[in-house]
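For this section, I looked closely at the sequence of one protein beside the tokens encoding its backbone, which the following lines show:
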Amino acid sequence: MKNLMPAALAALSVAAIPALSHAQVSPEYYGSLGYGSTRSDGVDNGVIQGRVGAKLTPHFGVEGEVAGGVSDDKTSIAGAPVTVELKHQAAAYAVGFLPVTPNIDLLARAGYGVTKFDASSAAAPLQGAMDSWNYGVGAQYRFDDKNGVRADWTKSEYSHSKADADTLAVAFVRKF
């Protein structure tokens, strides 16, 4: 079954090329800046997020995301107090758009990212980076041809770990 998966994905990709080439003449580029709240194993961290993307067709696009931590949180591990700081995140996504009205789109996205964090306690500091598979849903509303707002939820499932994170984000979106 694992051997059939790459062949099936390749066949779907080749079949989608004609549809993608005729669906829209030129891509629609956008950027966003917003705030996200990330919760992972009882720790809440705030981040400022920036995204850039290209809506390649009315229903499909790609985007990149970077985020920097702006707030840390405290927890305890084995009874010892620990401060956890999310340093930064970076991710790339495939995005599906579902136009509901001329000004409202629902969206779903899936991608891969990395998160760097620092955890410090009286015992010792700990630094690390974790890779994750990410997926989520959201909606965006455009005020006019160029400006809008977006709200979304993203789940990050970290590789080689049982940990995961949920991020709720709100952002201002600008079409270039």
